[in-house]
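Hi support team,

I'm filing this because I wasn't sure whether my run with pyridoxal-5'-phosphate finished correctly. The job status page said complete, but I'd like someone to confirm that the output block is well-formed before I use it downstream. Pasting the exact inputs I used:
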Amino acid sequence: MIKENLRLIRERIKKAISKRSAAAEDIVLVAVTKAVAPEIINEAWELGINNFGENRVQDALPKIELLPPEIKWHFIGHLQTNKVRQVLPVFQLIHSLDSIKLARAIQKEAQKTNMIANVLLQVNIGEEKSKYGFLWEEVPDALVELTKFKNLKVFGLMGIAPYVQNPEEVRPYFRRLHGLFKEINVPGVEMKYLSMGMSNDFEVALEEGANMIRVGTALFGSRG
Ligand SMILES: *Cc1c(COP(=O)(O)O)cnc(C)c1O
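And here is everything the job wrote out:
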């Protein structure tokens, strides 16, 4: 079943980027494995998926221990400062840097182990009270502020669109985030990854310039 889902997703990715000057190899598919058992994750890994995303530290760590060390793990959920220590050694990219307070905690912890933490700055693109992330107008100053943290490097932006039935409704948010992504010019900040798009809206996100999508349900089926 995963094999067929993956085939369909890859086809949909190809179609969505056909009007852009991007190749399928330029798109990073992050398979979101919250509530997915390690055996199933391993199956996906054997089918050639190398990037996996988890949103809760406690759920992720026991699974990560059981899975191939070559896997690249992405942290995509809200990260509490007291969990930073557990996240840094195992996750290659944190998509959800949503406050300067969190950046400070990451800096402190990364410095201890002399590592560089790779992060994406999360933007609250729908300006929703229920969601985390910097507000649009806060992003430029935040990026400058973040360059002061020497053990943290920003590699791009992440956004979660409001949930809607018709993904066309969120196109303007994705378009705006891509515009910001292109516009940013802060020394020390590399705008490499634009993480936007989930099962419900990844095609629209890809059409609007995403190069990293986070897909759970379309790959593994719906969780309970
Ligand atoms: C769960 C989750 C996803 C994947 O959602 P699906 O709709 O299952 O594809 C993507 N991003 C974040 C931040 C998530 O929490």
